[in-house]
Automatic annotation (TrEMBL):
Signal peptide: none
Keyword vocabulary terms for this entry: Lyase, Menaquinone biosynthesis
HAMAP family per UniProt: MqnA
PANTHER family: CHORISMATE DEHYDRATASE (PTHR37690:SF1)
Name by which UniProt lists this protein: Chorismate dehydratase
Chain's role: Catalyzes the dehydration of chorismate into 3-[(1-carboxyvinyl)oxy]benzoate, a step in the biosynthesis of menaquinone (MK, vitamin K2).
Source taxon at top rank: Bacteria
Chain's gene name: mqnA
Protein source organism: Pseudosporangium ferrugineum
Functional pathway: Quinol/quinone metabolism; menaquinone biosynthesis
A biological process term (GO) from this entry: menaquinone biosynthetic process
Lineage, broadest ranks: Bacteria, Bacillati, Actinomycetota, Actinomycetes, Micromonosporales
The keyword Electron transport is assigned to this record: no
One MF annotation (Gene Ontology) recorded for this entry: hydro-lyase activity
Amino acid sequence: MSDDAVQRPRVGHIQFLNCLPIYWGLMRSGALLDVDLYKDTPDRLNAALVAGDLDIGPISLVEYLRHADELLLLPNLAVGSDGPVLSVNLVSTRPLAELDGRPVALGSTSRTGVLLAQMLLADRYGADPEYFRCPPELNQMLLEADAGVLIGDPALRALYEAPALGLEVTDLAEAWKEWTGLPMVFAVWAVRKDFAAAQPGMVKEVHEAFQRSRDLCLGELDEVAGAAARWEPFDAETLATYFRALDFSLGERQVAGVREFARRAAERGEAPPLPADGPIFAQV
């Protein structure tokens, strides 16, 4: 890539623990020198990519589905899990089937996790709660609600804190796997179609850099966890367990999970149907 900072692709990066392994690999490989990296929360990165303020970046699955006509997926890159994910949770004071008509707080940083929780409650548990948005802080949520949807670091903390408080924790990715038999994908990496058409070489380089980063990190997860434990409120063993629960791939089974989620989202009117034909991946 060009050394001119103006020419470097604008690439997003999620400031959550679930993307720390990707960032670790980018630092180790030197790929950060070749991009303008913008670190932020998922909701802000979603908005920046859709608005054209980023060229390439992670985007929540729901927001990708809502803007699939403007974006192309980067192959074999995602954040999800094929079973428990540990950091996308519905924390409740009562069994889920008893949440019908009850207040449920939706963490303001979540898109895909929130919609997944709504799907599960409606279609699997027959519950139609009264939903409201609020900051993703469990104690504040449960002052006004019987349950709350949390993602990312607050959800991971709640996983370990909630049982001692007598709260039920439902891992939403695990519930999806039990419900559909498919992996759950929460975020994908996408490129704007206009940028992919204008700069296919840069897209290829960024895609390769992210894949190298992921593969490098997956071979060093214990080292990554040990380093992260120095500044995170989790010990190294907890972080290593978490990182190993994550799936950063986007193969055939993951794409099947994406398409099933897209079908259900379209049925609810939350996103346009994902085309059965036509390219959804960038040519890299």
